[in-house]
Amino acid sequence: MIQAINYIEQSLRDSDGIQVTNPATGELIASIRSWSVADVSGAIDRADRLRPAWAAMTAQERATILLKWYNLILANEDVLAEVVTVEAGKPLAEALAEVRYGAAYVQWYAEEGKRAYGEVIPSFARDRRVLTLRQPVGTCTAITPWNFPVAMITRKVAPALAAGCSIVVKPAEATPLSALVLEQLAIRAGVPEGLFAVTPSHHSAAVGQLFCTHPKVRKLSFTGSTRVGKILMAQAADQVLRLSLELGGNAPLIVMDDADLDRAVRGVMDAKFRNAGQTCVCANRILVHDGVHDAFVEKLAAAVSALRVGNGLLADTQIGPLISPKEAQRVSQLVDDAVARGATVAAQAQGAPAESAFAAPRVVTGVTPDMDLASGEIFGPVAPVIRFASEEEAIALANDTPYGLAAYLFTGDMGRAWRMMEALEYGMVAINDGRLSSEVAPFGGVKQSGFGREGSAHGLMEYMEIKYAMMGL
Length: 473
Ligand SMILES: NC(=O)c1ccc[n+]([C@@H]2O[C@H](COP(=O)([O-])OP(=O)(O)OC[C@H]3O[C@@H](n4cnc5c(N)ncnc54)[C@H](O)[C@@H]3O)[C@@H](O)[C@H]2O)c1
Ligand SMILES: N[C@@H](CC=O)C(=O)O
Known about the structure:
The protein is globular. The protein contains 15 helices and 18 strands. By secondary structure, it is α/β, with parallel strands linked by helices. It has two domains: 2-247 and 449-472, Aldehyde Dehydrogenase, Chain A, domain 1; 251-438, Aldehyde Dehydrogenase, Chain A, domain 2. The mean pLDDT is 96. The structure holds nicotinamide-adenine-dinucleotide and ligand LTNE7NMQ. Nicotinamide-adenine-dinucleotide is lined by residues 143-148, 152, 170, 172-173, 204-205, 208, 223-225, 228, 231-232, 246-249, 280, 377, 405, 445. The ligand N[C@@H](CC=O)C(=O)O is lined by residues 147-148, 151, 279-281, 437, 443. Belongs to the aldehyde dehydrogenase family. Residues 16-468 form the Aldehyde dehydrogenase domain. Pfam families: Aldedh (PF00171). This is NAD-dependent succinate-semialdehyde dehydrogenase.
């Protein structure tokens, strides 16, 4: 049994609760308490009671505790990384990178909380003074997915705590263990127990409804699918609840005929195959100019064929399993459907065991926009290649989706890069690079990829209200 389970209090274990399994082996790792809706409601009440004392502290006092939490996460990074690998499947090196990435949000917001400045505004009258101040939103809730079980929590909880809010988090059922370890480390750092509460539950839909309707909740931050985001948005309308929605994507990665092809291939390997393709910002459609299509596909095929698939705990694994056998089956069906409609599997990595949660990394050529492989979110290690003939066609293809999270562009012409970046209807555009996530930058989408930003100074403002104060002299 992994060392990390020792971090989880005995009281949180329950043999009839949520069964957490290792997607690489199907083995049961732990069984933990599933919170009832009434229990979660109690957690919200408790978080709300603890909030005023936390909000009354100075930003520096909160920062001191958050920095202790940051240091504790780093001191336990190997344990946390192992938990992430065992419950989510991603290779250890990637899991460690996620833990450090997640910790970076805690450090960033510990510091940024001290800069939640107000304004003194030139007045509209000689005898009046106009100013603004920032105040914490209040008691918050969050619902998070399984694909980044550490970072998707810290990038909500750190700004919430830094702003002076309390927050109750329901993690994904597949990955509650890293969330519980994060909570324990926060308590050890000095965050009052219950101010940041983790409430894993089998009752996702009912807890979601509670988060939208509980009278003490002032905000819900959700990361997950567009389907569930829409349900929550409808439920939140009744009490005009403040929302942040970080939803699904269908990222285009455009390779122009003037691109450095080796660099573009490296970009696809980063943007497509991170976490076995289970990332909201994963390149979902590789759009390649006719003039370089064959040369590019040859290089990409060589790189994908060389990927090593296996259990994430093994040192040389580059691609772990998907989150469940059902997901692997869904991804294979998408490829089969595209092939039946005329596409070709141009390359495939070896080593993915059949009938399991593993999916073979593949390059599929001859894909057209109407195929399900191109129009939906793949969430697996498959790179569909679509040809185009002009800059205008590339932009039209890229924007022809209800999603608008991330886009990638490879070109050697800086004028074209600027022009195309502006024309892409996406919240984030990476030029000549396949990685854009960072705690210093505003992460978020447009269209049906949601609204709100996480990371950077903008992420703190998601947890603060502006109060306008006017004083007559
Ligand atoms: N934009 C981003 O920052 C971002 C980041 C990571 C993942 N995602 C998206 O998340 C999705 C993958 O994650 P997933 O499969 O866990 O998504 P999901 O929407 O199925 O689940 C996300 C969370 O919502 C909960 N949930 C499920 N049904 C619910 C309901 N009716 N009411 C309330 N909560 C409910 C789940 O238990 C889980 O905790 C992908 O679409 C991916 O693009 C987006
Ligand atoms: N991968 C994203 C989160 C979405 O999956 C990130 O880089 O933060």
